[in-house]
Amino acid sequence: MRPCPPVLARTVRGAALLLGLAAGGAAAQDCRLALVLALDVSSSVDAAEDRLQREGTGRALVAPDVVRAFLLGDPVALYAFEWSGRRAQVPLLPGWVLVRSEDDLRRVASAIAKARRSHNELPTALGAALGFAATRLGDAPDCRARTIDVSGDGMNNESFGPRIAYETFPFDGVTVNALVIGGSRSAAELVAWFQDEVLRGPGAFSIFADGYQSYEDAMRAKLLRELEIPAVSSLPGGRSDAG
């Protein structure tokens, strides 16, 4: 695993608090959901868009309705990383964090919002990002459901794609949802690709953001849906929604 972004390395106290939370989560028996947040930082994402995505994720995590959804019932375990090229997956948190309070969420949100981007010139290796996320789920607390929440503004253009990832890595019982960000290509084409290639598992869905200015609202809606509906759905397949 690659080292944490510089901002976390420098913020020793904040990292220590998060590590303490993560250590407590490792032995959890009452976790309802292990949720991975995967943020796209490939070369199609410019500096301003990256900041909107990073800070938008942080603000969405501490929106009052999202906080209520996190704290309703048994805890949720969170992990977050940014991804771009085949070997460019960088954690945004020091490990899994078991969310038991609003303060836990605020520390996670602050770490993500303040993290510095690891790469800005690499292509879009979404299959590799999904494989990394599945591997990290192997280190998660023993939660009743497991979900990968991946954002992206383009199709896979390096290395193996999502289908190969699903055949190669441990995805049994894992749902993959997507936050599809428009602007770089035809919205209909991009949504269709994520629908066909990325969504996985019963009840999997995508939310569409019409550019990074809409990212925060889309992430908030996505988190609410993941947290408030039953984590294991009887629906036969994924679907796509406009956000």
Radius of gyration: 16 Å
Question: Given the structure, what is the number of helices?
Answer: 9
Multimer state: single chain
Question: Termini, distance in Å?
Answer: 33 Å
Tally of strands: 8
Helix and strand element order: HHEHHEEEHHEHEHEHE
Largest sheet: 8 strands, mixed
Low-confidence parts, pLDDT < 50 over ≥5 residues?
1-17, 23-28, 231-238
CATH homologous superfamily placement:
von Willebrand factor, type A domain
* Average pLDDT: 85
From the spread of the alpha carbons, the general shape counts as: globular
Helix-and-strand structural type: alpha/beta
CATH class, named Alpha Beta
CATH topology: the name is Rossmann fold
Topology:
Elements: H1 6-10, H2 12-25, E1 33-40, H3 47-61, H4 64-71, E2 76-83, E3 89-91, E4 97-99, H5 102-114, H6 126-137, E5 146-152, H7 162-168, E6 174-181, H8 187-197, E7 205-209, H9 215-228, E8 239-242
Parallel strand pairs: 1-2, 1-5, 5-6, 6-7, 7-8
Antiparallel strand pairs: 2-3, 2-4
Provide a short characterization of the protein structure.
With 243 residues, this protein is of the alpha/beta class. The chain has helices at 6-10, 12-25, 47-61, 64-71, 102-114, 126-137, 162-168, 187-197, 215-228, and strands at residues 33-40, 76-83, 89-91, 97-99, 146-152, 174-181, 205-209, 239-242. Helix 2 (12-25) packs across helix 5 (102-114) and helix 3 (47-61) packs parallel to helix 9.
